[in-house]
Amino acid sequence: MKWVDAVVQGLLLGSLYAQYAIGMSLMFGVMRIVNIAHGDLVVLLALIGISIAAVLGLGPGFIVLLLVPIGAAVGWILQRGILNWAVGEDPLPSLIATFGLSLALQNFMLTVWQADTRSLDAGALTTRSVELMGIHVGVLPLLIAVVAVVLTWSLHMALKTTKFGRALRAAAADSVAATISGVNTKAIYAQATAIAVAVLGIAAVFQATRTTVSPSDGGAQLIYAFEAVIIGGMGSIWGAFVGGLILGVAQVVGSRIDPGWGILIGHLVFLLVLAWRPQGLLSRR
Amino acid sequence: MQPTPYVVRRHTVSSKIAIVVAILLLLAIPTMPFWASSGHIRLVVELSCLIAIAQMWNLLAGYGGMVSVGQQAFIGAGGYSLFALSAFAGLNPFWSVPLAMILPALLAAPSYLLLRKLDGPYFAIGTWVLAETFRLITGNLDVLNAGSGMTLRAMSQFSAHQREVGLTILCSLLLLATIGGTFLMLRSRLGLALTAMRDDAVSAASQGVNVGRMRFWIFVVAAMGTGLAGAVYYMAQLRISPGSGFDPYWSSICIFIVMVGGIGRLEGPIIGALIYFFATRLFGEYGATYLIVLGILTLIVALFAPGGLWSLLSKVRDWPWFPVGHRLERRAEAP
Q1: Residue B40: what are its φ and ψ, rounded to 5°?
Q2: Do A91 and B291 touch (CB under 8 A)?
């Protein structure tokens, strides 16, 4: 029962990682870019949310409603202002630019919010739990999992069925051909990044209510998102979701074996997948 | 028959001066304990390590086309090798420093074989995951004193003066190995292949360069150089912990130095290291604000001046220090 419980808790933790990962997968799929400041943006949005909550006395529900448009705006500005200059065959400019951004953002947050760990108070929601087949499951983690499924499914459907999704897939397949066919690739890129960071707005609220955030946490979140994407399979939104769940299970099961091993076991599972199935578990290749 | 009016040269006046100055500096560093203060020696040790680490990152990213944000993996591995060799094998710490290149090489080879499966930018994050894995493993190994780190007790058998003599000699050798080694390599046949890869990996491959094998060896050699620098650096510190040896900030330093100085040129990391070193002395007291400026500068250079300062300088005056190419010059008229 102890291990079933660990797996269930791992799945719930992993659904938070899935929320970080789908945005990263989307951006890489479309532009072949990895934003090294991805995790720092989660922390930035969470800290903004915590400050707004403290000033206006709003609950987490309202904070989500505010952070999603803020995230979308941040993503749009990030793409228009920085990343659109760096899209191209060579991965170096975008990597180095976002690396610099990450260093600047982390220290900016350190100046504004200091090094303290903070969290968002969600009242009774944080402590309430339900019993499913003898296992106690927190209502908040359950909500996170449901939201992760809904987000992944909506993004998948948006890519598959909408006009925007078609334009995005066209830009991903061949940006020059897409431009000739009348797709404004730069605008599509900006929309993709806006969506990716808007999703981080939701993830940020969950991260801040579930545990704590501090300005230096971004690197770890980036690594978890990346591991989720690679475990699941590059370029697949559902792959990122499943990868997040596997990573969560590996970490929780690992930490039940030895409290110092949780994150390490997560890394080792990632390296194992890289060794045995580098195209990812969900990839059909 | 009329001789052609052109001649192919490698060296220029600037490069002859630069190489003489470089050799004199390398010879001068080991004499420092006899005339300079301990404080200045510490600074020279730090600067040498920065130049070496940055030069290795330049080899990796500039020539090999592999951006790494995980070079701290090899700094920590080199540093810990030194501490472990002197603590458990009882070796003289000064002789352990060159041996500290073995573990980084042994770790780098399988690491590269795993990471090469990752596409472009994902390779970079993969190197970070490896560095984090090494940090966590080291932090869980009780034999290495886990998270609290180790002290280089063996150094207490030497006087302060002896330590300084040893350290400065090691620094000179470190610079000779990283800069001199890269210089000689770039001038060889291998260098032609490396330069071709720097300019375009695909066309280099079409000309018969085995890009995969070259990258493997670059990754291993860069890890060895980085590990050597890590061993020298932590020998001067006398203490190492997983948090410091495997600190991701090492990668920030590499990236800043090479990008601002000039990537894909031997001179770039030296200029970048000098700028970083003096900027940190002058503005380091501003802490977070200083780092915000470093970050934004890196961003701007990456987007708008990808060749860094060296390429901007070269546009004004083409005065190379370490010539690795050939230049065509008009033969001086016979009197």
Answers
A1: -65, -35
A2: no
Model pLDDT, residue B200: 84
- Residues in A closer than 8 angstroms to B294, CB to CB, are 100, 103-104
> What residue of B is the nearest CA neighbor of A265?
B133
Q: Contact B296/A100, CB-based, under 8 Å?
A: yes
Q: Scanning every residue of chain A, which has its alpha carbon at the shortest distance from the alpha carbon of B199?
A: A90
Between chains, do A95 and B67 touch, taking CB under 8 Å as contact?
yes
Distances (CA, A) of A47 to A117, A141, B32, B169, B293: 10, 20, 50, 49, 21
* pLDDT by residue, tens only, chain B of 335 residues: 566 778 777 778 888 888 888 889 989 888 999 998 989 999 999 999 999 999 999 999 988 889 999 999 999 999 999 999 999 988 899 999 999 999 999 999 999 999 988 877 889 999 999 999 999 999 988 888 888 889 888 888 889 899 999 999 999 999 999 999 999 988 888 888 888 888 888 888 888 888 889 999 999 999 999 999 999 999 999 999 999 999 999 999 999 999 999 998 889 999 999 999 999 988 888 888 999 999 999 999 999 888 888 888 888 877 778 877 777 777 765 54
Name the nearest CA neighbour of B121 among A229, A237, A265, A189. Answer: A229
How far does CA A221 lie from the centroid of its chain? 8
Residue A225 touches partner B, C-beta closer than 8 Å: no
> What region, left, alpha or beta, does residue B238 occupy, with left being phi > 0 and alpha being psi -120 to 50 degrees?
left
Residue position matching structure tokens 């030497």: B158
Question: What phi and psi values does residue B2 have, to the nearest 5 degrees?
Answer: -75, 130
- Which residue carries 């290149």 as its tokens? B101
| B298 chain-A contacts, CB cut-off 8 A | 96-97, 99-100, 103
A92 touches chain B (CB under 8 A): yes
The pLDDT value recorded for residue A227 is 93
Strand ranges in chain B using DSSP code E only, listed in sequence order: 6-9, 150-151, 239-240, 327-330
Question: Can you state the angle between helices B308-316 and B267-283, rounded to 10 degrees?
Answer: 110
- Here the ipTM equals 0.90
Nearest-CA residue of chain A relative to B138? A264
Ranges of each domain in chain A = 2-216
Q: What are A136's strand-pairing partners?
A: A131
d(CA A38, CA A49): 17
Nearest to B169 by CA among B212, B222, B232: B232
Q: How far apart are CA A230 and CA B118, in angstroms?
A: 9
Comparing CA positions, the residue from A241, A169, A202, A191 lying closest to residue A25 is A241
- Other beta carbons within 10 angstroms of residue B311's beta carbon come to 16
Three-state DSSP at B8 gives strand
Look at A107 and B255 and tell me if their CB atoms are within 8 Å: no
How distant is the Cα of B226 from the closest Cα of chain A, in angstroms?
Answer: 20
- pLDDT on residue A106: 94
Cβ contact, residue pair A97, B61, below 8 Å: no
Query: For A84, which residue in chain B has the nearest alpha carbon?
Result: B303
Indicate the burial class of A141 (C-beta count within 10 angstroms; 0-12, 13-18, 19 or more).
buried
Three-state DSSP at A88 gives coil
3-class SS of residue B150:
strand
Whether B294 contacts B280, CB under 8 Å:
no
Instruction: Give the predicted TM-score (pTM) of the model.
Output: 0.91
